[in-house]
Amino acid sequence: MARTDATEPAAERADATRERIVQAARDLVVEHGYDGVSTGQVLERAGVSRGGLYHHFSGKDDLMAAVLEAVETDFTLRLAAAVVDAPDPFTALSEGVQWYLDECLRSKELQRVGLYEGRKALGWAAWRETIAPYGLAILTASLDAAIQSDELKPADPSALAHVILAMLHEGVTLILADPDPPAARERVGTTIATIIDGLHKPYGLVGPG
Q1: What are the residue ranges in the chain where pLDDT is below 70?
Q2: Which CATH class is domain 60-199?
Q3: CA dist 26 to 37, 65, 71, 105, 155, Å?
Q4: Which of 34, 51, 203, 209 measures 20 to 30 Å from 70, CA to CA?
């Protein structure tokens, strides 16, 4: 059923309230970590009532899932923009994984919410389920495109996406834990590039191989 003119403003206000709550929580989790943030702090930062929060979220964990979704959505849009001019799917894949390493190094929000606090707050299974429609989906699609265009050796794109994403997560963990993150970024980037290049199907090769 289509909305009436009378209900649209209320719906728009509700959406705006939800966005303020999520943005406030995003900022606070980056600043203090999930355990260091109370719902009261979120409400004060967002300027809404407790009833306003519970109208949209069942509790703090539900709010954290929405924060993680918002961060992942923004990340996916930036990633898509970063590789949009790549001449072919394999180049987009190669550039995309390197861009990801750089983005994790420079984005405190992606580091804290996407890689650490989201997993800590929601647990591994719920964290993976929440992020799957974003980075994992775009990586799977990129791999499938490269396979279909005969640029990548035959493989299951979904399984390969999980393996590559695990490699990226571990690589980022290594980078961020190193006393010299930029130097570690170069080492990890070179190693991952070597692995990705090993998946490349040589030009002129016909059939499986």
Answers
A1: 1-8, 203-209
A2: mainly alpha
A3: 10, 11, 8, 18, 37
A4: 51
